[in-house]
Amino acid sequence: MALCDRHLKAYWATDHTEMLTLGTEYIFSELMVASATDKRSLLCDVANMLTPTSETVYQNLDRTNSIWYLWEETYKGIMYANNIIQFVDKVETLDQATKNMYKGRAYFHRAFRYMALVFEYGDIPLVTKILEVPKQNYRSTKRDAVLQMITKDMELAVQWVPEQKDMSAIGMVNKGACRMLLAKCYLAIGEYAKAKEQTDILINQSGYSLMQNNFGTFNDGGEPLTWPITRNVIWDLHRPENKLIAANREVIMGMPNRGSDAESFIQMLTMRILYPFVFDTRIQTKDGKQALLNIRRNDPNYNSRYDYMRAFGRGIATFRPTNFSTNALWSVNGVMDADDLRHSSTVGNWIRMEDYKVNNKASSEFGKPVTLFNPNNGALLCSDTIRRWFDVPHYKLFLDDPVNEANISGSDGLRGATNGGIADWYLYRLAETYLLRAEAKYYLDPNDVTIKDDLNAVRQRAKCTQLYQGTVTIGDIMNERARELYWEEWRNVELKRVSLCLARSGKPDEWGNVYNLNDFDKQAGTGPSGGSYWYQRINHYSLYNKGPVQINSTGNSSPNYTMDKKNMYWPIPYAAITANNKGQLSQNFGYDGYDAGAPKWDNWEDAVADESKN
Asked: How far apart are CA 344 and CA 231, in angstroms?
């Protein structure tokens, strides 16, 4: 069980040198793209680069995605859970209630991972047992059959796993987390009323509440003279030291990742991987100087008013947000809501590039904001805006890094820079429950005027002045998820789950499109029409399919960002298919090896029965 819990945390806190696993989830959405422009293997031309054999990209030191890591690691997590499910009944010293509690938690861990796999890869091999001998004759099990199985399991988990208030340990699976996952399972299989019932229980009967006021410890940021924080509830809510304390009534389940035991905690390099790469010559001043310098704290020229290395970290922008994510997303009722604390640089929660000030004393622009264009002649002053010019949700991604901060003579890489330290993280909190309930209501009746109330509950806590009026669209719900749950939700998985829900329910998206359950995830080719809701969001809002991007870089001088409808599902790894040499795994539509006639299990019971057949 400890392995299951630690493995779950590692999806967010991955100790790759220049990677965070969750970034791959986000570049397959409308909110983010890969941006390490010096990498020739940069996964930007997804439509052409992503193949069943491209796992070799991950095996390269120049890797820029975690697709194959997610396949391998997620099946590892399933194996850990299967150990508990298969063997706990044989522990004679445990009573039945305790055995059921462990099984319920294991069902959660297995269901969480299968929920991810079916929306990342579609139809997949179903593994529910620990194998005693190798099995090489698997066949794929259909997505809906897997969803039916994990729904059944989660119904048992909700019965067997205790509430957090009845547990002494924090960070283990609790009943509230089981209800959250069960609600998502119900949504995925079309049981919308049951999903709403679970969210109603969480909101009204489980003791949780949205945090409305400042609480816990106030962390004033990495260098308050450089970037002062005006204390506010959104900032407090996302400080690691406040996420799992008793005063936080919003957290349903969190993942502990703070302390001094190096074997138990993983550094989260959010400030290295997700902040712009600003400390080089590609950002210039009007008088031709490097705008931003990384000055050591023991250097005579050091000035704590311009210590961006400690305040914002030494970003390398392996991933960057889209313009939609940082700008257009924040418009509600046609108005940019300046009071939304989640998008406010006034209080310090959000960083815009213009918030950086030139710290090169050799420039006549010293102390003035950096600018993208020279106002005198219109010249572009940043030669790689993909990697070096974008906003950051600082309140989400700033993490204390005391080890590196203590090195006052360090100036680059992992020496002296603030890169993001060990930090507790949210798995589920009540804000998402409101948004899930809004979604369930939408599938039941898109004209339900109470849907807006669930969205507005989240917006009002963020001090927004623009609130939803009348009826809302599924796009409004997904936009609010993007604002509230950035770098918490698995965005790609959630978009594809909603794509399935729209096709299953027959309800329209924000453009009036209605999807066909039989082919919404199988329409090939690029273009503005057809495909899934996932594809429509990407095509409307992201950098993909807009043509080559010219940059001045040592790697891809003209990266072409593309995404195809077929990329709704990732290809089943060629290595997995060839290892299964006595059977046939189904390859996904649009990729080499696809066979419409490949045999699949239509129900999970048959797949489970076949597991013992070698």
From this structure: 12
- For the stretch 285-321, pLDDT in tens is 999 999 999 888 888 889 999 999 889 998 999 999 9
Q: Report which residue type is found at 237.
A: L
Is beta strand 319-321 parallel, antiparallel or unpaired with respect to 600-601? unpaired
Q: How many C-beta atoms lie closer than 10 Å to residue 197's C-beta? A: 17
User: Residues of the chain with pLDDT > 90: what percent?
Assistant: 81
602's tokens: 């239509």
Burial (Cβ within 10 Å: 0-12, 13-18, ≥19) of residue 68:
buried
Task: Identify which of 364, 369, 274 has the alpha carbon closest to the alpha carbon of residue 315.
Answer: 274
Q: Contact, 79 vs 130, CB < 8 A?
A: yes
Q: Is 426 helix (H, G, I), strand (E, B) or coil?
A: strand
CB 274, CB 21: distance < 8 Å: no
| Angle at alpha carbon of residue 103, lines to 130 and 66, rounded to 5° | 60
Place of tokens 């904001």: 369
Give dist(CA 270, CA 518) in Å, integer.
39
SS (H, E, C) 560-594: ECECCHHHHCCCCCHHHHHHCCCCECCCCCCCCCC
Q: Say which DSSP state 499 is in.
A: H
pLDDT confidence of residue 299: 87
Q: Tell me how many degrees the CA angle 588-487-587 measures, rounded to the nearest 5.
A: 5
What secondary structure does DSSP assign to 514-576, as a single string?
---TTTTTT--S-SSSSS-HHHHHHHHHSSTTS-B-----SS-SS-B-B--GGGGSPPPPHHH
Task: Report whether 97 contacts 156 (CB < 8 A).
Answer: no
Amino acid at 483: R
Distance CA 585, CA 136 (A): 10
Exposure string for 414-426, b = 16+ CB within 10 A, e = fewer: bebbbbbbbbbbb
60 φψ region: left (φ > 0), alpha (ψ -120 to 50), beta (else):
beta
Q: What is the pLDDT of residues 581-614, one digit of tens each?
A: 999 999 999 999 999 999 999 999 999 999 988 8
pLDDT digits (tens, 9 = 90+) for 313-336: 989 999 999 999 999 999 999 999
Q: Say what the pTM is.
A: 0.95
